[in-house]
Amino acid sequence: MMVVLFLLLLGIFIALPIYYVIISSVKPISELFYFPPRFYVLDPTTDNFLSLIKLQSQSEVPFERYLFNSVLVSGISTVGYVMLASMAAYALAKHKFPLKGFITQAVVIAILFRPEVTSVPQYILMSKVGMIDTYWAVILPAMAGSFGVFLLQQFLDTVPNELIEAGRIDGASEYAIYFRLIMPMLKPAWMTVIIFTFISIWNTTGVQFIYSENLKMLPAMLSSLSTAGIARTGVAAAVAVLMMIPPVVIFLFSQNSIVETMAHSGMKG
Amino acid sequence: MKRSKAQRKKSRAGFLFVLPWLIGIILFFLQTVFKLIRYSLCDLKIVQGSGFVYEKLGKGIFTNFLDAFTGDALFPQKLMESLSDMLYRIPIILVFSLIVAIILNQKFRGRGMMRTIFFVPLLISSGVIASIIKTSLTSTVMGGDSSNNIFNATLLINMLYEFGLPDNLVNTIGSMVSNVTDLVWQSSVQIIVFIMGLMTIPATYYEVAQVEGSTAWETFWYVTFPAVFPYIFVNLVYTVIDHFVSYDNGVMKYIMDTAYKDFKYSYASAMMWIYFFIIIVTLAAAAGLISLISPVREKKKGDRKNGRRKNG
Fold it and tell me: What is the pTM of this model?
């Protein structure tokens, strides 16, 4: 029980800012700037959310369009990335082929290059291939990441080779082994990769690559709404609360399904 | 030894599996890396009308690299600071996140909620939500002090003053709180990775350990630790990289400012390459160190190497 209490204490440190943002989103303007700041609200209101809707309705592009863009881009990149990364990780962990050692090391080194580091050459590259102002400028570089490959590869290292050999002896093709043996076993790992990838793409504005208003993603619109000055503080809190919801839902969903697979499948470990 | 047909087929299948990802990396990642090398070896300028233009450097192609050490007092200094910071931060983060992950992996009431709470920093420590919280909320409410922390202790300190606590106590609590918050906020990915690793340990192992009468301490070292070891390696790599490449890091900030505020792309790329070289050396050293800690890993690795030699 002691440890849980310890955890609870730490949890408070984390939850406090989140709680503060949520509380701020329902504070009326008179309480938002009260000093010292209060951790409770006397007169809760939905004004901030209403004015967010009002501000949004003045924009030329409907809200659904931004949402659609965001879901489309995050969805395609996440699914595509998990496919590519798990295939690559499977080969790197369980196959032998030329240059394998080199590629394995390159995977780790590639984690160093955050998108911001490569953004200038990335832009030049995208403009040369004519992908500026398309979804692809965000989707394709997101698929060329490598932390997921590294994570999946480490996970696959713990999977016994005998299991795969058994599959081969039973006459399964390489693709059957990958889809029917490796992927179900890797589920906790690729669920984790989905969480990481989805969040990072969901959070990107992509404004350096996408200029057309009707192709922009939700974060781009929301951040431009919320950063328009002190008067928008309440709106900003509302925006932050709304933006947090989808990743949390994804996390809860994947957490539950991870626990389920581990409990229901015979192969733990 | 001539390789059999089946072996060749297997090797080809392996290559086919990496191929899609490899193509992506070559097209969208390696190209940018080569561009960054090219930038560092010349002087990249933005010329009105003709976009980015490469200019030859006057004093040999390595001028930018030499400048970083001879002409720039700030760069080596920031580099040393960042390295010494890493030495105490990384062990703390790793041990802390392992402990939290082990607790979160046990069965207790409200576990799902606790896991979600520990996941939240990942969600808002980067990207749009973070920038909204930093720019709009903290700056207006907390007096325009845009520090690195998402949630600085100013708020709490003010509240404690309101309660009428003595100055010393308030300051001590304040610095403690901001340190702990910092630590917790930087351990989110590591905790999730450890939880994933812990979930792969079959419950039967623990049952056996219990039947054999092992203490909790022994169970940790003989069951949990070996099983979770590959993820310690994953997390070590991630933590080292995250420490060096996060925007709060002094060197990274300096490089980014050189590139995007002073528009010296070439000098920034040269510094970046030096910096990355140092990170890679650090990573290699850390990986070497951690393989010393674990006899289990060492043995396994040795076996696998022998196997590889036999086959290849």
Answer: 0.80
Chain A contact set for B32 (CB, 8 A): 113, 118, 121-122, 125
- Residue B181 has its nearest CB partner, among A8, A13, A147, at A13
Q: Say if residue A41 is in the same domain as residue A143.
A: no
CB-nearest to B17 from A36, A91, A196 is A91
Q: What is the pLDDT of residue A76?
A: 94
Same domain, yes or no, for A161 and A253? yes
- Decide which of B295 and A38 is more confident: A38
Using alpha carbons, select from A19, A198, A5, A200 the residue that is nearest to residue B125: A200
B151 and A237 in contact by Cβ < 8 A? no
Suggest the residue from B30, B35, B123 to mutate for an interface test with chain A (most A CBs closer than 10 A): B123
Higher pLDDT, B130 or A219: A219
A55 in a structural domain: no
Q: Inter-chain contact A88–B230, Cβ cutoff 8 Å? A: no
Report how far residue B309's alpha carbon sits from residue B312's, in angstroms, rounded to the nearest whole number. Answer: 5
Q: How far apart are CA A18 and CA A39, in angstroms?
A: 11
Amino acid identity, position B188: S
Residue A57 lies in a domain: no
Q: Do B126 and A141 touch (CB under 8 A)?
A: no
* pLDDT at residue B217 is higher than 70: yes
Distance CA B148, CA B15 (A): 44
Residues 6+ apart with CB under 8 A from B178: B149, B152, B153
Q: What is the pLDDT of residues A54-81, one digit of tens each?
A: 887 777 788 788 889 988 999 999 999 9
For residue range A118-138, what is the model confidence (pLDDT) as tens digits? 777 888 888 888 888 888 888
> Domains in chain B and their CATH numbers?
62-311 (1.10.3720.10)
- Specify whether A211 is located in the same domain as A85: yes
Q: Is residue A184 one of the residues assigned to a domain?
A: yes
Confidence of residue A52 (pLDDT cuts 50, 70, 90): confident
Q: What is the pLDDT of residue A73?
A: 93
> Of A211, A201, A186, A206, which is closest to residue A250 (Cα–Cα)?
A201
Q: Are residues A219 and A117 in the same domain?
A: yes
Q: Which of B11, A167, B304, A164 is nearest to B3 (CA)?
A: B11
A53 inside domain: no
B103 near B118, Cβ under 8 Å? Answer: no
Indicate yes or no: CB of A227 within 8 angstroms of CB of B136.
Answer: yes
Same domain, A218 and A186: yes
| CATH number of the domain residue A92 falls in | 1.10.3720.10
Q: Which of A36, A111, A243 sits opposite B129 (nearest CB)?
A: A243
Number of separate domains in chain A: 2
Expressed as residue numbers, the domain containing A141 is 62-264
Looking at the complex, does the CB of residue B241 fall below 8 Å from at least one CB of chain A?
yes
Angle of the B74-105 helix axis to the B188-199 helix axis, nearest 10: 40
* Whether residue A184 sits in one domain with residue A253: yes
Among B213, B232, B224, B204, smallest CA distance to B96 is for: B232
Q: Report the alpha-carbon distance of residue B32 to residue A206 in Å, rounded.
A: 17
Report the gap between the CA of B62 and the closest CA in chain A (Å): 20
DSSP letter at A217 equals: -
